[in-house]
What does this fold into?
Amino acid sequence: MSGVEGKTAVVTGAASGIGAATARRFAERGCRVVVADLQEEAGEKLVGEIGEGAVFVRTDVTQESDVARAVDTAVERFGRLDVMINNAGIVGAVGSIAETSTEAWDATLDVLLRGTFLGMKHAARVMLPNESGVILSLSSTAGVAGGLGPHAYTAAKHAVIGLTRSVASELSSHGIRVNAVAPGNTVTAMTSALVAGDHQDLETTESRLREASPLGIAGHPDDIAHALLYLASDEARFVTGHTLLVDAGQTTAENPAPFHSMRPSVHREAGRRTKDS
It folds into this structure.
């Protein structure tokens, strides 16, 4: 893979899951990385693993000043921002539409949609003067079909795709590409909390996701990181406004396995801020 060496990327939700895999893979390819996350200990540990090509910035993606600081740190520390990856996410409000609380709904959209908007906004702010850059956001298979995620999560991930198309339309004339990646079921702590009822039970999650996969394999964070690498690279210079599905063919099935069939029998509000998208 060529095209990311010497560039600088901000990855939100980079301390764990898909975000951590993305930060590692980009750093391995010679990209400098701003690890933006609320999880300070995990974030600093990851930066220690990567080395001098990375810096941690404590970031709550619902707070505009935090997102702006992460972007500004990239420019101040490494000279520019080439790639913005809006990855930070939570499961958020879980339950039937009749029982979903307004507070949980709002909190979910704050992270998944407002956070993505803020990342796009501040990335554009520093990319526009250079007339170049790539903005990538994490959607989901729940962003292209109903029944594959909780209601608030599904609404937000659909909105991420719409926002991606809209911003791509605006920024294309400035040499800035804007795309999204829609992961299928991926073995992360956030998925495990839903599938196995325990965010640490990755073994059970792997088994269940493998059974539900058309390809007979479970997705891993690196699978998503590799898709992001492609879209961030110069090899994808002709791609913008696109959502790349990385789901083992889940959404090509006539009746994909619904989210509700993958969940534990005990349903609860899952508003913990796990930084996997």
